[in-house]
Design brief:
Helix content is about 30%, strand content about 30%. It has 10 helices and 16 strands.
């Protein structure tokens, strides 16, 4: 099947739309952690955009424990201060901080333990950022919630190893507060089709508190809005839902709550395909995480037929982020990420430097082209 490429006028409109939305969400608002005032403002913007093109829009509200850093975190390693960021949900330190020495330990990945020199008890954990400088991360490990846990940049790994060799004193100090029963939400748009069986698109709308999140995940969210607008122009065999989820960065809370709502309604079984966008713009090499060979093969075929720059890679693993709950409920699923500009783009992950001028429109356009075509071919092939 020959794929029709949309005309240049439409492409220019999408480029302007991307610039407009990045400015609204990343520049005017900035960081938008779930539960914050800025996030609530972004919800109104997203809701307004969806209402322009889909028939039904709902706000799915959920309650959670909101964790907030209250002061600049400090890590003194010997005589050197290292940039550091605590894990979201981690226990904070006493007001005077924690003093001790460090050693290498291992839980599920190599980490450093800050221990008391008298009791030898671990008082805090220090991990290394996977890509660049210190970043906030969610405290998935139970141990990281029981005692303070922080991340330092890759550039400071040698400083930690030197502190071990010299048995240098280390001090960690930060203050955080947990606010119980904080409200946040996801925005759900719905295009009814001839069948109630659904294709569900997901893209998280929240960021960490230190970053405007232009590449993670605002650009992908905007790509989803573009797809919603394009698909609204024609009738569809299947119903299509678009979920701008909240709380992805702090435990995939919005997606989990929406799945629970659908279970309680008794209609989660209607979600037949889940397509989760997270960081489509790290590079031209699209990555598909999925154990669904038919869907993966079709996306790969479309990508190649469009003659897009870069390569496509399939990893035989199911989505373990926002799409996981829908796959467990019976949906076929794909999670789409990207790579290619790793030396520059991956260093932006969860960092203040992740700003709009570093978003590549071509990569947003690639996502738009591939997945609007995917919906057409799913319907043509009666894949649901």
């Amino acid at each position: 099947m020959k794929i029709n490429i949309t005309n240049k006028d439409d492409t220019e409109k999408r480029k302007r739309y991307l610039e407009l939305m990045l400015n609204k969400l990343c520049v005017i608002l900035g960081p938008r952690p779930a539960g914050s005032e800025n996030y609530n403002k972004s919800v109104n913007i997203i809701k307004n955009e969806l209402e322009k093109c889909v028939r039904f829009v709902e706000i799915d509200r959920f309650i959670f424990d909101y964790w907030e850093l209250k002061e600049k975190p400090v890590l003194i390693c010997g005589t050197k201060e290292l940039e550091v960021w605590p894990y979201y949900g981690s226990k904070d330190t006493p007001p005077k901080g924690i003093d001790g020495k460090i050693k290498k330990i291992k839980i599920k990945e190599p980490v450093f333990g800050l221990y008391d020199t008298n009791s030898r008890k671990i008082q805090a954990y220090i991990t290394i950022s996977p890509f660049g400088k210190a970043v906030p991360r969610f405290a998935w490990e139970p141990e990281f919630k029981m005692v303070p846990a922080v991340t330092v940049g890759r550039q400071d790994k040698k400083a930690l190893e030197k502190a071990i060799a010299q048995e240098a004193r280390v001090n960690l100090k930060f203050k955080a507060e947990t606010i119980k029963n904080k409200e946040s939400c996801s925005v759900i748009g719905y295009l009814p089709g001839e069948s109630k069986d659904e294709i569900l698109f997901l893209a998280h709308a929240d960021t960490h508190s230190n970053t405007p999140g232009a590449n993670d995940n605002t650009a992908s969210l905007i790509a989803m809005l573009m797809i919603a607008c394009e698909l609204s122009k024609t009738k569809h065999k299947y119903s299509i839902a678009f979920a701008a989820t909240g709380g992805e960065e702090v435990g995939h809370l919005g997606a989990a709550h929406y799945a629970e709502i659908r279970k309680n309604r008794g209609d989660i079984h209607r979600i037949k395909i889940s397509i989760n966008f997270d960081s489509l713009t790290y590079g031209p090499n699209m990555i598909i995480y999925s154990q669904d060979k038919e869907l993966s093969s079709l996306i790969t075929k479309i990508y190649k037929e469009l003659k897009l720059k870069g390569t496509i890679q399939v990893i035989n693993e199911n989505d373990n982020l926002d799409g996981e709950v829908f796959i467990k409920a019976g949906a076929r699923g794909v999670y789409i990420n990207s790579r290619g500009y790793d030396k520059t783009k991956l260093k932006l992950w969860h960092r203040p430097e992740d700003t709009p001028e570093l978003v590549d429109f071509e990569l947003v356009e690639n996502g738009f082209l591939v997945f609007t075509e995917l919906v057409k071919q799913i319907e043509n092939k009666n894949m649901i």
